[in-house]
Design brief:
- It is a single chain.
- The chain has 316 residues and is α/β, with parallel strands linked by helices.
- It has a domain of 221 residues: NAD(P)-binding Rossmann-like Domain (Rossmann fold).
- It contains 10 helices and 12 strands.
- Strand 1, helix 1 and strand 2 form a beta-alpha-beta unit.
- Helix 1 crosses helix 7 and helix 4 packs parallel to helix 5.
- It binds nicotinamide-adenine-dinucleotide (NAD).
């Protein structure tokens, strides 16, 4: 069976590719090497999968490729491609979020209309919820994004649900809650905190550090994709959290403990678009396809720290 991953050179996409190849699937991966972060880092993400003869890489933007030709060769789609990042989504760059998160998703879904897919998995985000009053957040909780990025991911999710209703494309949305682990994007919190501690640099904390996040280890997020491929209900959305909700400041204390180095903290004003708290209720994913996160924050951070220590050069 052959599968398609969009955004395969990214953090989540490259891990998912390694896992799906390991499971014995043939794989086509598409990526445009969007310059949100350097191409060299993405090339490095892809290094292992490119050695596998069952992997074909297509460099290109979903908006320009002959998608029908690609889709005719696959049985399912894992749509990870997007421009991520909450803070960069304000202002004139929003047009990039419209293009890569909304238009690219619509173009891909259009191209899927005449293809008999087993599943179309959409990488959604906890950012679609915004500042939820209900904790833990359920899939039925209100969706009120607090960032333009969240708005774009929610629009993508609505599109997948629409194409299920209108054309029967078997879409499933996975709402990831802050994913971390090796190859995490360089703009993300843990990457920045760990490298700053390792290099003895200042850590900028926006707000008090008391904000909480539900952190999901990359292996658990990847597992959720595989489980949703087999057992996710069409037209449905699922929370994918890590079961490790902690305060940012507590996470930094764990990094200090693991690395044996102390953090030099600099507090700054809270950032527009950052949700105060995230905390996923994952019982729906558990019920429908047996999702149960395995890696707790201590083990996950220890593995993330070790990997980054060994690979810091990639990011210099
Ligand atoms: N990392 C997280 O914590 C997190 C949390 C919630 C949701 N998500 C979602 O998961 C997905 C993967 O996130 P990530 O952290 O791996 O991001 P990433 O930036 O590392 O990967 C996304 C990849 O998509 C590619 N891409 C973007 N637009 C494209 C287009 N139009 N055509 C082809 N390729 C394109 C980029 O070049 C990039 O390599 C995204 O959809 C993101 O919104 C991630």
């Amino acid at each position: 069976m052959a599968l398609l991953i969009t955004g395969v050179a990214g953090f989540v996409g490259s891990h998912l590719a390694e896992r799906l190849l390991k499971e014995g699937f043939d794989l086509i991966g598409v990526d445009s090497f969007l310059d949100y972060y350097p191409k060299g880092i993405k090339e490095n993400n892809l290094k292992r999968v490119r050695e596998n003869p069952r992997f074909e890489f297509i460099e290109g933007n979903l908006l320009n490729l002959n998608l029908k030709e690609i889709l005719e060769q696959v049985d399912a789609v894992f749509h990870q491609a997007a421009i991520p990042g909450v803070r960069a989504s304000w202002g004139k760059d929003f047009s990039q979020y419209v293009e890569n998160n909304i238009q690219a998703t619509q173009v891909l879904l259009e191209a899927c209309k005449d293809i008999r897919l087993k599943k179309f998995i959409y990488a959604s985000s906890s950012s679609i919820y915004g500042d939820s009053d209900e904790l833990p957040i359920k899939e039925t909780s209100p969706t009120n994004p607090v960032s333009p990025y969240g708005v774009s991911k929610l629009a993508g999710e609505h599109l997948t649900a629409l194409y299920f209703k209108g054309y029967g494309i078997p879409t499933v949305s996975l709402r990831y809650f802050t994913v971390y682990g090796s190859r995490q994007r360089p703009d993300m919190g843990f990457h920045k905190f760990i490298s700053a501690v390792l290099l003895g640099r200042e850590i900028e904390i926006y707000g008090t550090g008391e904000q909480t996040r539900d952190f999901t280890f990359i292996e658990d997020a990847v597992e959720a994709n595989l489980q949703a491929f087999f057992g996710g209900k069409e037209g449905e959305a699922y929370n994918v959290g890590g079961g490790s909700r902690i305060k940012l400041i507590e996470a930094i204390r764990i990094i200090e403990e693991i690395s044996g180095k102390s953090a030099n903290l600099k507090y700054k004003d809270p950032q527009r678009g950052d949700a105060k708290h995230t905390y996923a209720d994952v019982s729906k994913a558990k019920r429908d396809f047996g999702y149960s996160p395995k890696v707790n924050i201590y083990e996950g951070l220890a593995r993330h720290c070790k990997w980054l220590k060994d690979n810091l050069d990639i990011y210099r």
